[in-house]
């Protein structure tokens, strides 16, 4: 561990990828980690998280997939191949070991992490914070999305998704307003309202992930049912006898904002409720414990590469 050292950050603005690269401290080359923001867009907490990964010896790329220059304006029809390009670009850096990388995502980025791990080669660990094992649609509360459709595509085809608008009332004013207008217990969930066939079609094929999986959820999540949504992925992995470790860490008093460890999320009073569920103190405790579990899973999936530069791991 090399915490406290200076972390070099570089803006990446290319035709094929956009993001922020944080170089791992200490003698390299280092294992690489792709970090994926949530539905709020990039440029926020995920950069602080990536910087902390770099202080622990990982070279981390915050890959921005919508809402920035040269990328789509909204979370709609995002090609999974874009994330694969990010993986291969990261692997090609001189300071990165050219084997598998880890993928860590938050919320819709956690959903993306499971999708990427299920479809892409060279993914050695997958970590999803308040993720979903079921694909969701493009969010109609987001500017630029007039009607429900696929959030993701693969090989040009829509990724099947769980319909939301027929089951959940949303606000045209954005996610925060949708959450704040009604308590989570009063909002019907798409997971509860959808038919078994609709849920089955939208399940992410997580059995294709070639590495350990860690999912983190909050029992007081006010955005979506992250414990149940994460558990769908766990159950599918178990049905397919996934050969690597599978963990689902649920924090009953935490909400949706389980993110960067060792800091409160923007409020002075730790006992105050966060707008996305849980108290700031509960979210901070969950973030610290989830961080420790994340480092363990990254070591499990990627750590052996430091001892074997010629190790080959990946499905294709």
UniProtKB/TrEMBL annotation:
Keywords: Hydrolase. The keyword Hydrolase applies. The active site is at 107 (charge relay system), 221 (charge relay system), 256 (charge relay system). GO terms for molecular function: hydrolase activity. It comes from the Archaea. Residues 78-303 form the BAAT/Acyl-CoA thioester hydrolase C-terminal domain. This is Acyl-CoA thioester hydrolase/BAAT C-terminal domain-containing protein. It comes from Halovenus rubra.
